[in-house]
Protein: Carbon-nitrogen family hydrolase
Amino acid sequence: MKIALIQLNIAWESKKVNYEKAEFFAKKATKEKCDVIVFPEMFNTGFSMNVSAIAESENGETNLVLSEIAKKYSIYLIAGFPVKEQDEEKGRNIAVVYDRKGIRITTYTKIHPFSFSDEDKYYIAGSNPVIFNIDNIPCSIFICYDLRFPEVFRKVAKNVQVVFVIANWPASRKDHWETLLKARAIENQCFVIGANRTGTDGNGITYHGASHIFGPLGNNILCGDDKKEFLTGEINPSEAADVRSKFPFLKDMRI
Structure:
């Protein structure tokens, strides 16, 4: 599986600009024969609490744009964006996955809104993790602050080989980001793929990128810096099953 990680320097609350960037990188990923392209959390707006201005229906414009990009370039596409339906009091911070035909195959709502920045005041919490397949490879996905809660990763650990984490994780806590991604890979014996943004957002928060792919033994397969927006890496997901068969500690889990 060849993966493109897009460390997008997100244009603040400027969807059209970010759509154009998304298509540019999808085209590039296809030329490099990638199977999957991964964009950060809230790729189309940045980590904004301005729900009334930026949120849209789950089936709205952003969904249509992403679906068309996935279909046009025949690539699995993963991205996050904020949504709010008319009957909902708050927004939802979601991650979506599209297959090569542009069909949305799963939608995940962030289980742990980041209360430190008042995200929980503007976005409701999701309740369940999701499992989906990419070319018959079982995967799951989480969003940013979820990474600090190993319990949710444990809920899917035995049933997946790859876990994606999309984020707007600030440079000030870069070491935490890298350490936690590696820890989640080791303790769950799976590939963990973290896609984080670069640049500075509308609140003056700076992001370092540092997108990673960690293998099931914690080996660092790919590491991004704070400059390059387009990264690629390759994994063999069956290695997760091989590692588990040789050192099957997950079967001893009692909690």
